[in-house]
Amino acid sequence: MPEPRGLLNKKLNLIVKLLLIIAIISFVATNFTVFKNIMFSLIGIGLVIIIHELGHFSVAKFSGIKVEAFSIGFPPILLTVKRTEKGFVIKLIPKVSKEGDIESESCLYQFTIGKKAKPGETEYRIGLIPFGGFVKMLGQEDTKEVGKSDDPRSYANKPVWIRMAVIAAGVTSNVISAVIIFMVVFLIGIKQMPAVVGGVRPDSPAAKAGLVAGDEVISINGETRDLQFMNLAMAATMAGPNEPVELKVKHLDNSTAEYSIVPVASKQGGLKAFGIFSPLTLEISKVDDPNEMLAQTGLLPGDVIKAVGGQDIQNYLELEKITASALNPQVAVLADRINPETNRPQPIHADIKLTLNLRTGSSLDEKTLGNLCSMVPRLKIVGVTKDNNLKTGDVIVRIAETDNPTYKQMRDIVANFDKKPLDVGVIRKDEAGKDQLLTITTIPEKNKEKRVVIGIGLDLDVNNAVVAKTTDPNNGFAKLDIPDGATITAVDGIEVSNFFDIARIINQNSDQKLTIDYRLNDEIAGDVMLDLSAVENFKPIESVFQSIIPFEPLERLYKATGPVNAIAMGYRSTEMFIVNSYQTLKSLIFGYVSPKYLSGPVGIVTMSYRIIKDYPLVYYMNFIGLISACIAVFNALPLLPFDGGHIVFLAIEKIKGSPVNEKVQMYFLYAGLAAVLAFALYITFNDLRNLIDYII
Fold first, then answer.
1. Which of 622, 642, 637 is nearest to 185 (CA)?
2. Residue 679 has what pLDDT?
3. Cis omega (within 30 of 0) for bond into 241
4. Residue 95 in 3-state DSSP?
């Protein structure tokens, strides 16, 4: 006899649930570290939510309001706990009625622990979605009209000021908890980047104002206490249109100066900035692929550079200065590396390849990638991201029918060869070190940005003296009349073999007129005049590392001198994040900042996961303090469904002597919920896109 359909369905549901539980246990067992970090991340965010809801809960209880449910996380409900005459009844995955009540018997599993006791009136719940929570009070509903009740313990029957206190308690709890968390952080001590200028971007507001690497900002709009680099970045981001930020700066010679700088957004759009780089140390930071760094530079994460070009150095500024003036294809570096067997530093030597910093302006020049006094070098491959038969080090001398293409010419040609064979002519060194001319056929394809690419990284070939073309540099220099593809043979009568030689001679004669000799072939040769004396504010040409070498940021210990100082520092940090959160909202409303730069729940969990994974616990505590302050700000917004919106309606009730019509409240609530949901979906989409980029 076949089993009844109901019994069969129950068995199938049980099997599915058991398989799900087995899958979860298997994942946890095989990925315990990842699971642990995720759980710590969720616990930290959950703690902030608990603090907020406990504020509502405790004031409601103290005011004599009956609290029917206290939930951490939103439905579906995973677990409930309630005190009964038999003890504490625990239900796993209970069924919830349409009214939001837990049905008495319907759940996956139920058991009772503890001794007999007086029944409790509050049911404690844990929801699956950890980005929120709620306190369900008798007589209060957010999404439906409530019938009149004579129960004196009903929320609706309490005076307005008590209801205001209950609603405001959540925000207040988050503010107080943020102060306490930051207080503990500063009692322990935390290393953060100080407000020191690590460098300035050319033609940026900071560069035009006269800030230089090594300057320390000691006052931002009059604030002088506990300044960090983050304060500097926030001051720029949150400034209004054409609004200057007042900075007081201490130079390396201990002299001080005051600046009024108007931050601007980049040409590509985005957040406003001064154009200041963060300060760095001489220690190599972590990278995704240490072996790749070792192959390219001879360095590994954790190495500390001690000397460059035979000169001992003490800080990153000296490293940058010596490297900039090297003007050679490579520079010798001495570094200390920890020996894993002895755990002591041992010296290692590396020859690091250099290139010339020929970029014009602060962003990538889509036309040429840069130029030297109007001379544009050929293109060189510095990285390959897909199997296309091209190799790092190849010099591009032809693409399709175009010889010695510039960056823009190459981009325009590649754009027309989506999934079509494309011939690329390159010069490649053979095993004996001799140049060989090869033609490589590759098939470009669209990347995730829908841009047709070959799958290579490009830089300028400054190791040879071949000019792909000349261009109008638009920086005081005149365009030189040199044929495309010509080789520079001499500058001011001195033979040259690469652009480093050319740059060195130009730097040494920055106020002179120089003759540049070139040769195109056996029949065509000539010379042109480069008038350096006509260029105002000539900036020396600098060399930089060819491969990006990440350095650890310069950090300073921020630690309180005692409990009283810790409270003051905690209060100032909380105030800073609250003020900056409100300024962010203001900037969003007026269009100064795009919402694409905000993080939602997914972004917050992702960021907290990375902090837990890579940093000591105190950094995660600092992050949780920041989140607590931000939650306080958003919940104080005078819009439903936020706490601030409920307080507004309670204030109106107090003024007019009666509650606002429930239907009117419902309209405002649903409008607010729709706006919040749309905004949440938008920033969650951004979070997921950024997370995918991070994983890929």
1. 622
2. 76
3. no
4. strand
* Contact by Cβ (8 Å): 328, 499: no
Strands 311-312 and 256-261: unpaired
How many whole angstroms separate alpha carbon 33 and alpha carbon 614? 12
Cα distance between residue 645 and residue 636, in whole Å: 8
Closest CA to 421 of 406, 399, 395, 397: 399
Residue with tokens 């980029």, as numbered in its chain: 693
Residue given tokens 């690590």 in the structure block: 198
Output the CA–CA distances (angstroms, integers) from residue 134 to 56, 302, 392, 643, 668, in the order listed.
9, 47, 57, 11, 19
**Whole-angstrom Cα distance, residue 214 to residue 249?**
10
Beta bridge partners of 467: 377, 486
Q: CA distances (Å), 118 to each of 88, 264, 471, 547, 601, in order?
A: 10, 65, 87, 70, 39
CB 605 within 8 A of CB 690: no
Output the six-digit token pair for 342: 């002895």
- Buried/exposed code over 212-233 (b: 16+ C-beta within 10 A; e: otherwise): ebbbbbebbeeeeebbbbebbb
The answer to whether 467 and 528 have CB atoms below 8 angstroms apart is no
H or E segment and range at residue 688: helix 662-695
pLDDT in tens, 626-640: 989 988 988 898 888
Contact 248, 258 (CB under 8 A): yes
d(CA 174, CA 259): 36
Half-sphere exposure of 540 (CA within 13 A, CB side): 15
Q: Kindly report whether the global pTM for this prediction surpasses the value 0.90.
A: no
For residue 7, what pLDDT is reported? 61
Q: Which residues pair with 350 in a beta bridge?
A: 333
Q: Report the C-alpha gap between 136 and 99 in whole angstroms.
A: 12
The single-letter DSSP state of residue 87 is E
Residue 693's pLDDT is 44
On the CB side of 539, CA atoms within 13 Å amount to 14
**The amino acid at 140:** Q
Residue with tokens 């409920």: 646
**CB neighbours of residue 474 within 10 Å:** 11
Task: In whole angstroms, give the CA distance from residue 16 to residue 22.
Answer: 10
What distance in Å separates the CA atoms of residue 608 and residue 614, rounded to the nearest whole number?
A: 10
Q: Centre a 10 Å sphere on the Cβ of residue 374 and count the other Cβ atoms it contains.
A: 22
How far are the Cα atoms of 47, 241, 327, 509, 543 from residue 501, in angstroms, in the given order? 61, 45, 7, 13, 11
The number of beta carbons lying within 10 Å of the beta carbon of residue 649 is 19
List the one residue out of 406, 553, 392, 557 whose CA is nearest residue 467.
406
- Residues 230 and 213: their CA atoms lie apart, in Å, by 17
Q: Which residues are catalytic?
A: 53
Residues of the chain with pLDDT under 50: 1, 145, 268, 361-366, 692-696
Burial class (CB in 10 A: 0-12, 13-18, 19+), 184: middle
CA–CA–CA angle 204, 210, 214 (5° rounding): 95
Determine which helix (DSSP H) or strand (DSSP E) holds 260, and give its type and residue range.
Answer: strand 256-261
Here the tokens at position 311 are 């000169």
Cα distance between residue 79 and residue 92, in whole Å: 5
Cα–Cα distance, 570 to 324 (Å, whole number): 42
